Amino acid sequence: MHALDWTIIVVYLVYVLVDGVRRAKGTRELEGYFLANRSLPWWAVGLSVMATQLSAITLIGTTGQGATDGMRFVQFYFGLPVAMVILGVTLVPFLHGAKVFTAYEFLERRFDARTRSLTSLLFLVARGMSCGTIIAAPAVVISAVFGLDLVWSVALIGVPTVLYTMIGGVQAVTWVDVKQMVLIVVALVAVVVVLLVRLPVSPDDALAIAGAAGRARVFDFSFNLNETYTFWSGVIGGTFLMLSYFGTDQSQVQRYLTAKSVDEARSSLLMSAYWKIPLQALVLLVGVLVFVFYLFQAPPMLFNPAHDRAVRQAEPGALAALETRYGTALAGRQAAAEAVARERDGGDGPAVTVAIEAFKARAADAETIRGEALALAEQVTGESSRDVNYVMPAFVLHHLPLGLVGLFIAAVLAAAMSSIAAELNALATVTVIDFYRRWVRPQGSDAHYLRVSKAATGFWGLFACVVATFAATLGSLIEVVNRFGSFFYGSILGVFLLAMIRRARPVGAFLGLIAGMATVATVNFGAPAVSFLWHNVIGAVTVVVVGMALSARRAAPAHPTA
Amino acid sequence: MTAHPTLPDAGSHRFRRTLLRVMAVQVGTLLLLWLLQTRYTG
């Protein structure tokens, strides 16, 4: 990589650190440190909400998914706008109006301490581990691409983020998020422009070729519970997932609790309602255009450089034979793609159809050979050879112009850091407010809690970096924890829904939460093929039904006390 | 346990207007995606 690109990355890291640390002056009390004294404008909170949700994997993994699988992943977000509007009139006024630090604090006011403690404990366990995976995912890619040791990749992402979050609190998280979000969008738009300029065919022909390879398919209207991305799982399951994430996950709730007023908090969520689907479509479109680009520029057969090196060393003869066949198949695929563009320009309908069919056959040939190479890589390395996350880094490093390489890598770092910072800030808030101040030392001074909060942020940062460093060895454990997380996401939403029902009682909320998690766990193990998007629906509905049934049983017969 | 919260006045008129606007933008986006699929997927 050129010195200019390294300079851009270093300037970005230094700027983020300085900008975050200088926010420390507005955080001399606990409310300033965790909630920015509820003073932030809607647009800053809105950009922070979006930046928190958009992780590095969105930039490198989702673009790779666009290149290999097309646009259909966008269906995952179809429930988001509806969820944002629902939250705007239900939970947001409750939580913002209750003047709480955490979403779980509200549950004690409404129900009891055990419901608050259980939900906040579930959040700490799941988010603590997931924070490690948020660092690990891009760090693993960075270390494979640059040949860096994983510890250094983790440090590159983790250390500046922990420092500015620890020193600057939520003000630093939000204002740095604003700049990071702008950087991410600028980098994405720049990549689209470069791709369109560099493609040897018109954008119209490029999309037609992508469509012939199945990359322009967006909608799947089949009602199949086992298929993760369908229109219905996106609209129904996605709505519940987004309600859970934006309504009950402290890393998101804390963003809009910093807004000046309920109206500003609502407006901040609506920003995502308007822009999330178009932004996600743009990310996937980048991937689709990268796929078309690689029809005219020979792509690597194995995108993961570490796997490429390993196979080259262990099986040089087999790899060379595959590369020869792959080269021939790619030449055939390129000629077929050019024929599609030529026939479309000629305007001859039947000839276009013939050209498209020929292209599909040549593309399938190339895919078959690549499949053999991936199987060989799996055999040699003993690990999954799925290389979706390496498609975009390969394109960025070898085909983007000078300067833009650094800009895109800075955007990937920004996406990772914005998500991690919000998580660390939320983990520290829940640790201090829902556990330390609630159970350990209820009468401490504000200055004392502030010191403990900074220490808690540092602790969670260190914990996340350690988890990320041992991500490979902790792989199965992390998967278990992530799976465990999906057991209770919808169930916690169910508790918050109960909180808004007048007749719901504490016993119903607590036992309903346990019933919801048990039901989802049963579905997960009993019918593992059911897509995880439906888990949230099942969990939330179970909690509400069981919670209301138990509340009705326990309700006083004549005049229930509130 | 404190008193249960009552649903705040959400401003139903303004909510309907916002909902309509958000839905209009989404319908427009989905239409564009639908056009992309029908035009380019054979």
Q: How are the SSEs placed, and which strands pair?
A:
The complex is a heterodimer of chains A (562) and B (42).
Chain A: H1 3-21, H2 30-35, H3 42-53, H4 56-69, H5 80-89, H6 91-97, H7 103-110, H8 113-146, H9 150-198, H10 203-212, H11 231-248, H12 250-257, H13 262-296, H14 305-314, H15 316-346, H16 349-381, H17 388-399, H18 404-440, H19 446-469, H20 475-499, H21 506-526, H22 533-554
Helix pairs in contact in A: 1-9, 1-18, 3-9, 3-12, 3-13, 3-18, 4-13, 4-17, 4-18, 5-11, 5-13, 6-13, 7-8, 8-9, 8-18, 8-19, 8-20, 9-13, 9-18, 9-19, 10-13, 10-15, 11-12, 11-20, 11-22, 12-18, 14-15, 14-16, 15-16, 18-19, 20-21, 20-22, 21-22
Chain B: H1 12-40
Describe this entry's structure for a reader:
The complex is a heterodimer of chains A (562) and B (42). Chain A has 22 helices and no strands. With 562 residues, chain A is an all-alpha fold. Residues 558-562 of chain A have low confidence and may be disordered. By secondary structure, chain B is mainly α. Chain B has one helix at residues 12-40. The longest helix of chain B is centred in the middle third of the chain and has 29 residues, at 12-40. Chain B is rod-shaped. Chains A and B meet through helix 5, helix 6, helix 10 and helix 13 of A and helix 1 of B.
